[in-house]
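Thread title: Can someone regenerate the structure for this chain?

I was given the following input by a collaborator and told the matching structure tokens would be attached. They weren't. Posting the sequence so someone can regenerate them.
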Amino acid sequence: MQIQRALRGDGLENDALFYAATLRAAKTPQERDRILEQIWVSAEQLEEALGGDPSARGEGGDRENDPAALKAGEWYNKATGQIVAFAAHLDAYLAAIEKTNTPKVANTKRATITKFALEFATVGDVTRKTVRLWIGRQLTTPANVRRLLAELKDYWIFLVSLDAAPEANPFDKPSLPSHSKKSVDGLRRPFSAPDVLNLLGEARRRVDMPLVALIELARWTGCRIEELCSLKIERVNSAAGYIEIVDAKTAAGRRQIPLHSKLKPILAALIDNRAGYVLDRLPANKYGARSGAIGKRFSKMKTALGYDGRWVFHSLRKTVSTLLENAEVPEGVAADILGHEKASLTYGLYSGGTSLARKSAAIEKLDYGD
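Best answer:
Regenerated them for you:
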């Protein structure tokens, strides 16, 4: 039965993993020898089932070019732990961290490790040199590269605990190469003011009014997409003229943002004596995030208009930052509007933040030429 499964291709990898785990768990040399003998016999049976001749071992045959012998040899090395598939213990790792990670974080780690394994099939393929070269091929932000490395480093530590990887961790403090021109060009860029008007016009042409409203909110507040999609009407203070962001990624992200004079009538029409979310009828995913579907519509629309991967919805946030800088708004004021951490100790740790009046004056400097 095992050999038939091997011929079909299913179960072969799991059988090797089972043998490798059993071998690691052996308590005595005698038990280990018995398991090794079983692995050897199974490898011979596999080679014979694949059309090879295991009895030809040691007779000087051209076994290096024999597909059956190569397949059986590879299986033997995996079963004895000499070759470990990089993602072989992924499920066990995710089960081990289940209690300390949210489902969303766990799924992100699964995606990171699975994608890495597509390029690095075995643990032996992963070295400090190959990791450094891999880093250089990542067209993403340095912060995102650090996140990927941290997730891969933790998984490697788990592999070491199973004796499935050497103790030297190739993801530990790698030498980060400087970004090439290609990777720098691949980083996110802000939309220009005319670009924003172009996006708005296309959303209106498509009669996608939720997307129109989302872009309007983003261009006058600089909020992240999920901050806007999760914004509840109860967090809109029309009388005092601001919205309050409470569902944010960081402590600095929880903030009050004054309403631009051009946003006030738009927001009033969106609320219209309702309760619930400012942007209603947005389906939530299994984690409760409401930005997925509308975010995909934005992505398809901007791609159709000719904007490549350097421009995403987050680019609108960069647009607001750029307009504030060009309007000579102090960096600390802009940071309080956008929800960024302040670098200095005096303003970042001790200050209570920019006043609402001063933020309002800065927000009014946003101008898209419409």
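The radius of gyration is 28 Å.
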